[in-house]
Amino acid sequence: MEEERETWMNKRKKKKMTWHELSYLEDGNSSKAVDSVVVPKKRERGNNGKRALESLTSSERRKFYHTQDFVPLEKISPWIPPNEREPVDRRISLFRGDITRLELDAIVNAANSSLMGGGGVDGCIHRAAGPLLKKECATLGGCETGKAKMTSGYRLPAKNVIHTVGPIVHGQPGEQQKSSLRSCYWTSLDLAARHELKTLAFPCISTGIYGYPPDEAADIAIRTVKDYLTEYPDKFEKVVFCVFLKSDETLYQCKLKQFLTDQPCDPQSNSKL
């Protein structure tokens, strides 16, 4: 490996290194280094990988995405109620698929308190973003339940990652856990708004191994986003609820209908759509 690294470095001496190449060299994996985009030296002066990334244009960044099968904003349709033709609120979308493919200003990570990566969506986001995400997270000092912190997105199509820590639930959630979950959504939206980010995607927070009942978690997620958009109508152009399971898609279809159209939620009806 050392011989391969030295050979590769000698080969690259006449070229300017990119943040992406540097990150892989740190991991000792030169076989994955990318030659396609070069960051000009004037952008590299005194920078780290994050600063180099942020200096790239949108077209340059796309060449560094962990996947070229990304989903641009224009491909994310607003949510439309069943049997209707027009959306209730064009700012709200439901997307079923991999959140690490979404090309937005930010995606939210359902993180643990260390912010150093874990299972589920947390692990997927860290793997897709690459090793520089973990290095930046290590500088943040963790995160409390219900709070949020932001990093760069690195190799993700999303420019930023907002990390929030949801409550752990055993049995039925109490008032403190309900408040903490609401805070996850509200503080994530608030953090994004303070940085003038306009497009954002949420995964399901605290469900899965954290034990929050999906039905009740969806209630809080949609109600909180709706409340925020009502209170601050000009802050966001798009907020996406990103689900992975078909059962969650059915649940969110039902809950969006309930909260956005004031019609009763009937999961059985939505499952037939």
UniProtKB/TrEMBL annotation:
GO terms for biological process, alphabetical: DNA damage response; peptidyl-glutamate ADP-deribosylation; purine nucleoside metabolic process
Matches recorded under Gene3D superfamilies: Leucine Aminopeptidase, subunit E, domain 1
GO annotation, cellular component aspect: nucleoplasm
Entries under SUPFAM superfamilies matching the protein: Macro domain-like
Pfam families per the UniProt record, alphabetical: Macro
Domain Macro: 79-260
Protein name: Mono-ADP ribosylhydrolase 1
Source organism of this protein record: Erpetoichthys calabaricus
